[in-house]
Amino acid sequence: MIRVLPADDQALVRGGFRMILESRDDIEVVGEAADGREAVALARATRPDVVLMDVRMPVMDGLEATARIVAETDARVLVLTTYDVDDSVYAALRAGASGFLLKDVRPAELVDAVRVVARGDALLAPQVTRRLLDRFVGALPPPSPQALDVLTGRETEVLRLVALALSNAEIADRLFLSETTVKSHVSALLRKLGLRDRVQAVVFAYDVGLVRPRSS
Predict the structure, then answer these.
(1) pLDDT, greater one: 143 or 176
(2) pTM score
(3) Whole-angstrom Cα distance, residue 93 to residue 69?
(4) Is domain 136-207 classified as CATH 3.30.1330.10?
(5) Which of 51, 77, 117, 216 could form a disulfide with 97 if both were Cys (CB 3.0 to 4.6 A apart)?
(6) How large is the average pLDDT for residues 20-35?
(7) Which of 124, 121, 107 lies closest to 203 in space, CA to CA?
(8) Buried b (16+ CB within 10 A) or exposed e, 176-199
């Protein structure tokens, strides 16, 4: 059973999410939070697998709440936003969120997203991820090859393709590998770099200059 905690200051939104999620046999809504502080408290108390986190909330915003929940619990955070490219979304990914969804997401897509994040994957729509990073990865530090020294050449190449928002299947096709081998490389590079998931891998790859935003 996947335990989910919706956090949004609009009761109608929370109720809509609850209705959609609880219609599935494998998902349980363990509570609802109306602000960031309540989200943190409920995440500690109920230990959800996934928190649906609105960014703009009173008392404590979703960014601080995300950082605290990621630091203090094993819950994975799925950020909710009105716009598909928003500076607060990138900040949320840096804070440890495992991906983001638009608030007008279709019911089936919401359920799929919760399942994806609950099993440990990141929710990164390729076209949205590219636009997000192109816009908000600004003044990057100089490339730091030393940061990549722990990786093999193949792992570095896989990381570069992950940062370009390719799926495991697409990476396998590009590198003439099996998808299982690609999954093994991704797991290894995350472990070696001390990263939580693919979202953090994308941020890391841009930060060290392995991949750079396109010129606008």
Answers:
(1) 176
(2) 0.70
(3) 13
(4) no
(5) 77
(6) 95
(7) 124
(8) ebeeebbeebbebbbeebebebbb
The token pair at 18 is: 């609850």
Contact 32, 5 (CB under 8 A): yes
Distance CA 201, CA 23 (A): 33
pLDDT digits (tens, 9 = 90+) for 108-142: 988 988 998 888 766 665 555 656 656 555 544 44
Q: Do domains 2-123 and 136-207 have the same CATH topology?
A: no
Q: May I ask the CATH architecture of the domain 2-123?
A: 3-Layer(aba) Sandwich (3.40)
What does the chain come to in residues? 216
Structure tokens at 127: 């076209």
Q: Tell me: the pLDDT tens digits for 59-94?
A: 998 889 999 999 999 999 998 877 655 567 677 777
Identify the pLDDT of residue 27.
96
